[in-house]
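Design a sequence for this backbone.
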């Protein structure tokens, strides 16, 4: 039987998660992942990788909850296995604190993480400028380890990897039967999506082994997350800013803000600084379309999965499964029997 040639564009956590799901679920598809940058040079590599997310405004809440649950269950299985150290996945406990009581005191993912509860008055005394807090155990996924682990899993499933730059999806239509677009910020030029915009994030890696629990300010700008080898300390969320250079003023401000929450952090050793551009978008785009070829009657099916903003690691596996479902729909409609497997 002729194999269906599928190409996944993008080698971040969304791209590799989607490629693995397709390659493992549809073995009669020949899956190739194409990107110009791979780990350790992707935006995902520097992500804090802590599992919780803000609600997207225009996507059905049940769908968002399914994305979160599917991703949490997937990463929890890894965290509780012997693969956890290699994959860089671990359970992480801590709290999120607020200067004002939020409109929704119980987020939509509260029953999916472990042990969700409100902080007590006694616990909040530590944070005199904050009046409300949530404590829970979630998962931290360090993409500097997780992406190479996913790539190995993808290759074991028969997937192929190709490093090259793609200017337009039409370039791929002559070689592949189906295109899966996981290009992140690149979708702005690749498919002309002007809703996608850069959101600059800067973090520090700090050696502070005595800090075992994360703290995140509810505004999402000030946080630190203990990891396997160091503490991720952040951050910034600078809309429309394309600077990839480390800004010393940002680093100074990040440390100042985080030391207000955890004074002992001032004794930590800064190991490094990192800047990345999140693919900001009002809502992630997880949908299908048919792409016309200029000067030709041929049309090619495309599945889009990009625009997760700061929620990429949190929702990667869930949206990858949604994208897989869309691929199966296309194969079924075009009469490919494997879609019914």
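Sequence:
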């Amino acid at each position: 039987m002729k194999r269906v040639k599928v190409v996944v564009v993008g080698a971040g956590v969304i791209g590799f998660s989607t490629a693995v799901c397709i390659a493992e679920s549809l073995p009669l598809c020949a899956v190739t992942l194409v990107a110009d940058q791979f780990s350790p040079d992707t935006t995902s590599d520097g992500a804090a990788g802590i599992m919780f997310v803000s609600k997207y405004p225009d996507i059905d809440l049940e769908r968002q909850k399914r994305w979160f649950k599917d991703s949490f269950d997937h990463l929890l299985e890894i965290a509780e296995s012997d693969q956890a150290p290699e994959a860089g996945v671990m359970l992480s406990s801590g709290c999120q604190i607020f200067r004002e009581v939020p409109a929704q005191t119980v987020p939509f993912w509260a029953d999916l993480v472990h042990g969700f509860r409100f902080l007590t008055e006694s616990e909040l005394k530590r944070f005199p400028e904050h009046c409300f807090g949530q404590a829970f155990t979630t998962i931290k996924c360090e993409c500097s380890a997780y992406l190479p682990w996913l790539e190995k899993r993808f290759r074991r499933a028969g997937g192929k990897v190709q490093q090259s730059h793609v200017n337009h999806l039409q370039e791929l239509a002559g070689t592949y039967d189906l295109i899966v677009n996981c290009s992140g910020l690149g979708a702005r030029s690749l498919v002309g999506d002007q809703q996608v915009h850069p959101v600059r994030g800067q973090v520090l890696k700090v050696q502070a082994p005595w800090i075992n629990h994360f703290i995140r300010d509810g505004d999402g700008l000030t946080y630190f997350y203990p990891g396997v080898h160091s503490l991720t300390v952040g951050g910034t969320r600078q809309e429309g800013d394309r600077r990839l250079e480390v800004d010393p003023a940002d680093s100074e401000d990040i440390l100042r803000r985080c030391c207000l929450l955890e004074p002992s952090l001032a004794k930590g050793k800064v190991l490094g600084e990192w800047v990345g551009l999140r693919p900001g978008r009002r809502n992630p785009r997880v949908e299908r379309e048919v792409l016309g070829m200029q000067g030709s009657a041929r049309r090619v099916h495309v599945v889009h999965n990009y625009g997760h903003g700061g929620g990429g690691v949190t929702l990667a596996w869930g949206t990858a499964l949604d994208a897989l479902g869309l691929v199966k729909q296309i194969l079924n409609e075009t009469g490919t029997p494997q879609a019914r497997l």
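The chain has a mean pLDDT of 95.
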